Amino acid sequence: MPQPCTVIIFGASGDLTFRKLIPALYNLAADGDLPAATNIVGFARRPKTDDSWRGELKETTTKSSRSGLNEEIWGSFAPRIFYHQSEFGNAAGYQSLAKRLDELDAQSGTRGNRLFYLSVSPTDYEGILTQLAAAGLSGTKGGAWTRVIVEKPFGTDLSTAHALNEVVARVFREKDTFRIDHYLGKETAQNIMVLRFGNGIFEPLWNSHYIDHVQITAAEPLGVEQRGPYYESSGALRDMVQNHLLQLLCLTAMEPPTDLRADSVRDEKVKVIRSLRQMTIEEVGTHVVRGQYAAGAIAGKEVKAYREEDRVSPTSMTETYVAVKVNVDNWRWANVPFYIRVGKRLAKGGTEIAIQFKNAPNVLFNKAAEPLGPNVLVIRIQPDEGISLRMQCKMPGNAIRIEPVKMDFHYGTSFGKASPEAYERLLLDAMSGDATLFARRDEVEGAWKFVDVIEEAWHQSENPPPLCTYPSGSWGPKESDDLLERDGRTWRRM
Length: 494
Ligand code: BG6
Description:
Layout lengths: L5 E5 L4 H16 L8 E6 L5 H15 L6 H7 L3 E5 L5 H18 L5 E5 L6 H10 L11 E5 L7 H14 L5 E3 L7 H11 L13 E9 L8 H26 L8 H14 L5 H7 E7 L1 E3 L2 E3 L17 E6 L11 E6 L6 E8 L18 E7 L3 E9 L7 E9 H5 L6 H11 L8 H19 L7 E5 L6 H8 L9
Parallel strand pairs: 1-2, 1-4, 2-3, 4-5, 5-6, 7-12, 8-17
Antiparallel strand pairs: 7-13, 8-11, 9-10, 11-12, 13-14, 14-15, 15-16
Helix pairs in contact: 1-2, 1-12, 5-6, 6-13, 8-9, 8-13, 9-13, 10-13
Bound molecules: 6-O-phosphono-beta-D-glucopyranose (BG6).
């Protein structure tokens, strides 16, 4: 159980606060994991009262909370929620916030512990951090702690991420800075390390001697919804590859850490990032495929093309799909490609890591013209979280007929309870000061360095690779299949 604290959310009127942050805090309270004295203060520009904000939150939490809403629990949770109205740039608003936080500490025993959550546009970060420091809110007094959680996007390239890191570092120490990547809070992502280092059988096989290649897929049937303006300036590479997918790749590829301290784990992840083979501008055309969804059908319903979405340019060159062949140049992974793909408006939703092992030798059962398929270990991040292993089996009967079967573990059936939402775990960890599941400065900057050259090839080179289109409801552009076919491989059908 962490020490009680006050969580101050900048961007209290934002979608993330309503859909994720408050439901996560509510569910922590419902599960008895939130210290009873915890206070929540929303900081935003719109005029509201404590009561009117609580009313809005009750409605949205009922819709978004994984456990629904229990009146009694809400009844004891809601009085700890407060609203503080101010412009982000108004010094007086921060002075009155400081006063209010002191009063709340005195009333509820939060002991001066504070967790600031920046859930605002990145253009507001610098102003908010500067004001926090000026109002004396970023320092610590008498054994209390002060931490900051920073939402993504963390910069738009290496130089903006670096500049942002400098701004944050002026106000908060690295150990008090929590850069959120919600994929790291997903139950199955956390299980990758347990699977690898808590079992004796996988690690000896987890290398280029036995593994042929790895596929990491994050597929979404949704389009850009209401986020056209953000997505136009981001695209799939910055939105998902630089952070979520590279984080999953790091967890899959890293060496065992010496212990489970945050920095020991993150040191190993950074080594993977440093081992990613940096592409040249010319190589981007052969190693990366970018696509944009055209009109099509999802679950039998017609959907429009990306260029026809709300607040998206009709001539937009933004990618909604990316596939990348990534080489990890280290001893363990020499010549084992990691193929990663991410896309919106794909046929099906799902995130998974598939470890494809090398084929059995071409003798005995594997001698036929049509070879037996390889063993594939699939870590399903979502939905239906679990792990499966595909292997060959003899069909019952007098003849030798071999068919692939799956050994399948499902979280839902094995543990009989729903996994907590990523934000629950991450908020609790930040309150406890555990940064293991948060990205460190060097990880974030290293990941930007890797993707920057791809952006440069697409948007600044003389001969940019094409932006391919794919019908909504498909599995992405044909060129993405070609990327693997050239290596004699195919994408897994999910
Ligand atoms: C966010 C991206 O970080 O992750 C979104 O900005 C994407 O574009 C989302 O839809 C996917 O998260 P999840 O948890 O639904 O897989």
